[in-house]
Design goal:
The radius of gyration is 24 Å and the shape is extended. It has a two-stranded antiparallel ribbon. Helix 4 packs across helix 5 and helix 5 packs across helix 6. The protein is built from 6 helices and 2 strands; from the N terminus they run H-H-H-H-H-H-E-E. By secondary structure, the protein is an all-alpha fold. Strand 1 and strand 2 form a beta hairpin.
Length: 169
């Protein structure tokens, strides 16, 4: 009548749909696991650069407490962090302070907020160094202990730049 399929064919189409859902779910799960491993390795390296034990990033609440500690964020922000919806505020503050502590600019902090899957590994695997003297959002008066060459921009440790020989001002 209405161009209905006989009953024996209905199983083939439902099996195809179930196979599609299973394959899609498997791909989604594998992608999720890859992202999880990349973020764990990136956080491990960031904790190591900050002078902490890498394993500390594996324990959820403890990792946040340790991150608050090396980013100099007051511990009472953990209460705000645990409130659903409002917890995004400490996450933004952590990203900003993380960028500042690794001598990165505001655009990098924005990248840490919007695309952490991309920017955390960049921070972890680049040559960026943790600078405990960099002022975060809750600190004032701290200055960077790094000096840069005004000629080539490299970090200068002595009186002269080891890259171009220019005298530091």
């Amino acid at each position: 009548m209405y161009n209905e399929l006989p009953y024996e064919y209905a199983g083939e189409y439902s099996n195809g749909f179930l196979q599609f859902v299973a394959i899609f779910s498997l791909i989604f799960l594998l992608l999720f696991l890859v992202i999880l491993v990349v973020m764990l390795v990136a956080n491990y390296k960031i904790f190591k650069k900050a002078g902490k034990n890498g394993w500390e990033c594996l324990i959820p609440i403890y990792a946040t407490i340790v991150k608050f500690e090396f980013l100099n964020i007051p511990l009472w922000f953990l209460l705000i962090y645990l409130i659903p919806g409002v917890g995004i505020i400490p996450q933004v503050i952590m990203s900003i302070n993380l960028a500042k502590k690794f001598d990165k600019d505001a655009f990098f902090a924005l990248g840490l907020i919007i695309l952490p899957v991309v920017f955390y590994p960049i921070l972890a695997f680049s040559d960026a160094e943790y600078n405990s003297n960099a002022a975060g959002l809750f600190e004032s008066g701290k200055v960077s202990d790094k000096r840069y060459c005004t000629n080539c921009g490299n970090v200068v440790t002595g009186k002269y730049c080891s890259n171009c020989g220019f005298k530091r001002v």
